[in-house]
Amino acid sequence: MRYAAGVDVGSTQTKSVIMRDNGDGTPEIVVRGLVDTGANVQKAAEHGFHQACREAGISAQQVGFVVGTGYGRYKIAFGNAQMTEISCHARGAHFIYPNTRTVIDMGGQDSKAISVGAEGEVLDFVMNDKCAAGTGRFLANAAEVMGLSLDEVGPLSLQGTRPVKITTVCTVFVESDILSYLAQEKKAEDILRGVHLAIARRTVSLARRVPLEAELTMTGGVARNIGMVKALEEVLGVTLQVSPDAHYVGAIGAALFALEKMDQSFESGIWRGAHATGSGH
Amino acid sequence: MTQTRSEYRGQIHKRQKELMLKWYERLDEAARTGTPPTAAMMISGNCVELLEGFGAVPLYPEINALQMAIRHQSLEPILIAEELGYAADNCAYVKADIGAYLKGLTPADGKLPVPSLVLCNFVGCNTYIKWFEHVAELQGAPLYMLDVPFLRTDDPSRADIDYVIKQLKEVVTRLEEITGRKFDLDRFRQAVRCSSRVEELWSKIKHLAKQTPSPFDAYFDAITLMGPLYVYRATPEGVEFFEIALKEMEEKVAEQKGLYESEKFRVVIEGPPPYPYFRTFRDMFAKWKACAVASTYSTVGGLWEFGARHDPAQPFEAVAMHMLAQNVTNRNYLQRYEQIRRYVEEWNAQGLIIHFVKSCRLFSAGQGDMRDYFTKTLGIPTLYLESDLEDPRYFAEAQTRNRIDAFFESLEHQTLTRLHQEAR
Predict the structure, then answer these.
(1) In the listed set B187, B217, B233, which residue is the last one of a domain according to the structure?
(2) Do B224 and B298 lie in a common domain?
(3) CA-wise closest residue to B338 among B370, B363, B302
(4) Which of A264, B248, B275, B405 counts the most CB atoms within 10 A of its CB?
(5) Burial label, B102 (beta-carbon count in 10 A; 0-12, 13-18, 19+)
(6) Is residue B192 one of the residues assigned to a domain?
(7) Of A87, A125, A271, the CB nearest to B420
(8) Nearest chain B Cα distance for residue A42, angstroms
């Protein structure tokens, strides 16, 4: 049995995925691991990877190839190659949903829209520029100022019926907006609904710069927030595909590249799993 | 992937340094002795030929500003200008230049003179009006506002050409009064002849980038050649420099020597570079063995690769035409689209990089539409980057690197996918 790994070192969390080659060209996810990135990127990557190996019941030496992705990818000393999270999210989303043509990825500090080809290759992409508006950080700040946990804000926002207008797109100034609404005794759910819609509008205006073609898949940590998914769907007017593995999509893509690079099929243009029908969900 | 640096260093790089140093020495001499006379001008559509008629030396605040940026010295003068009241999103060239003057900073060892004339040729960039007004006021220098109309049609009208010629002749009169020197018409004609020759040589060099591999980078290396192009174009030294440059490039082509051992990607770059991170930015492309085969920034001084030349038979009209029509900043966006489209097709590029400069509305307004046009209408892969040409605070290294890496990965993956599809 041959194993390969993808390690996605994000600004907030480090995701590790170990995949197995079953010998028939269909890769399979063995383990998904999650640790907080913290201040030491290299340590987080090592910790996440070794934890995933332990869970898979294999030694690190049994992993034939490791591809690092995410902002911390160059800090992964044990990695064999690095690839950007743009390529990895496209690849991972395409593995899970082969008809994906657009990926909207929302992470801790980045939001991006990626136009994906039939084989999972990136055709075009746009990203937020030097501003955390429209990212997980915006939501985290909003949650903090309201004294809520990040897990609570999404579901609570769905109960809002009269969303407030959030006019700022600044992650810092949104706090003043929220405090002002709290002072006006607006309901928490209405404020949160307003926050989610503001982020959704900003993300969609970014995403419209690439061809927004069906099927649309949402990936990244923020995809776990149901309020954000619904707000995006409302603004876009379409349904988004959100896998239970949304948070791991970058690491899955990296692991797929690792499998291919392990036997050099990547360099010959043979992208494995390009026509896979799913990942076991 | 291993880190690669592009280290093409030919005779031209050495000679360029000598020439630019000599230029600063002449400016220092002017500062100390009042001779030779000098005139401050904008690079774009400059009329350096006219100055030659007086033996006067050009002074380009833009070059001073970018030299400070490339040496990581631009933030201090920018902050000084902001303390004066310049806004965060004002042109950072302006702020660096004004701040440097107030602080007495210069990009070279010597001093910079108070210009004999602040000759504001605001070709296509209105910001220069206020910039040069402020320069003139601060330094107590005389100001001539050379009003070059925006190009409103593909070619300038007769009335526009005559309007500019009339002003050029007024400038001659002003300079005669200021310098006490008589305008030397023969020397002016000779200057226009030199310019015409340099334009021919420069154009040939730029066309050599059509070769695979390209002998030089038409963005990063072109910037090296742009200094002599603006300062020495109208002189025999300029002609000699560009003759050496062409010979060097032709030799590289004959030996099939490219910028990299194996050129992997060919791109076109639009917009000025982030000078405070010039080397870092260049290495981000070198890592992918990506060579810029053409660039719009290298046409701010003049757009000669499509045939335009100063006509020595009509020197005043030649200078007027150059100011009106033959530089990228006075042309409309559709003309710029066409220029880039031709670069991609004729120079055989795989993609376009747009560098949005936060503090330069002149270059950057409309680049979002430009990206749409090239990606959606023409199907040319296009990468959009944002930072600044002068202000280091707007350059986010990790984000910029990530976008460039992702762009070249996508080109690589698209090629692999295509090969695989063809093999099936």
Answers:
(1) B187
(2) yes
(3) B370
(4) B275
(5) middle
(6) no
(7) A271
(8) 16
Look at A269 and B419 and tell me if their CB atoms are within 8 Å.
yes
Q: A123, A256, A261: best mutation site toward chain B, by most B Cβ within 10 Å?
A: A123
Residue B71 contacts residue B107 (beta carbons within 8 Å): yes
Residues B140 and B241 in one domain: no
pLDDT above 70 covers a percentage of chain A that reads 92
Strands B382-387 and A122-127: unpaired
B176 and B121 assigned to the same domain: yes
Instruction: Find the CB nearest B423 among A127, A266, A269.
Output: A269
* Residues B284 and B416 both lie in one domain: yes
d(CA A162, CA A246): 29
Would you say B113 and B135 are in contact if contact means Cβ atoms under 8 Å apart? no
Domain that holds residue B149: 27-187
Domain that holds residue A178: 99-242
Q: How far is A181 from chain B (nearest CA, A)?
A: 30
**Number of domains observed in the structure of chain B:** 2
Q: In this structure, which amino acid lies at residue A152?
A: E
A-B contacts at Cβ under 8 angstroms: 70
Closest chain A residue to the Cα of B382, Cα to Cα:
A124
Residues in chain B: 424
Number of domains observed in the structure of chain A: 2
Portion 355-384 of B in contact with A at CB < 8 A: 368, 371-372, 375-376, 381-382, 384
Which residues lie closer than 8 Å to B422 by C-beta, 6 or more apart?
none
Domain with residue B74: its CATH number is 3.40.50.11890
| B414 touches A at CB < 8 Å | yes
Compute CA distances A227 → A90, A139, B180, whole Å: 23, 11, 76
User: Measured between CB atoms, which of B384, B396, B409 is closest to A87?
Assistant: B409
Name B420's Cβ contacts closer than 8 Å, sequence gap at least 6: A119, A268, A269, A270, A271
Tell me which residue of A69, A58, A62, A57 sits closest to A16, measured CA to CA. Answer: A69
- What does the alpha-carbon distance between residue A185 and residue A9 come to, in Å, rounded to a whole number? 40
- CB of A38 closer than 8 Å to CB of A44: yes
pLDDT in tens, B157-189: 999 999 999 999 999 999 999 999 999 999 999
Q: What is the CATH number of the domain that holds B286?
A: 3.40.50.11900
Cβ within 8 Å, pair A86-B409:
yes
Distance (Å) from the C-alpha of residue A127 to the closest C-alpha of chain B? 8
B266, B354: one domain: yes
- The structure's pTM equals 0.92
Residues B247 and B152 in one domain: no
pLDDT in tens, A190-232: 999 999 999 999 899 889 999 899 999 999 999 999 999 999 9
| Residues A53 and A130 grouped into a single domain | no
Same domain, B80 and B227: no
